[in-house]
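Bumping with the actual sequence this time:
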Amino acid sequence: MRVTLREDVEAGGRLAVELGCRPGRRWHHFGGPRFHVPAETAFCWTEVYLDGRLAPIVRPIDVLRTAVFVMVEDQAGEPIVEIRQDIHPCVIDAAKAPILGSKVGDLALQITRRYSGTGGRLLLLSHTLLPGDRFSYSMTFHPD
């Protein structure tokens, strides 16, 4: 991921509700397009809210080659004990369409993942916008 967005934010209002935290809690918000090298068109757009006290792990990095949650576990010693994933349909907006090689209004999926540490504390939330033509989901069941 090429980090093109980076800011420290204080959760309030709708953001505090989404992050399930008290207003005023500090978060490091960053994001950007993700690429399959050597492709020049991004395959998705990802934005991350990282617990503010963990921000030094990613703050100096402009290109992430490792999953953020792995960096949190390795560098901060914070084990991720649960990942909750929600997938919702959406459309691609004017800001992200050219980056994704898509058209404004094209169908997409937003994948939201919440990474919790011990005690249920949210350490990381990510939103990934994936154009509909780049998403596949399959599942295998074994009935008893």
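The tokens above came from a reply further down the thread. The beta strands are 5-10, 26-34, 44-51, 82-91, 107-116, 122-131.
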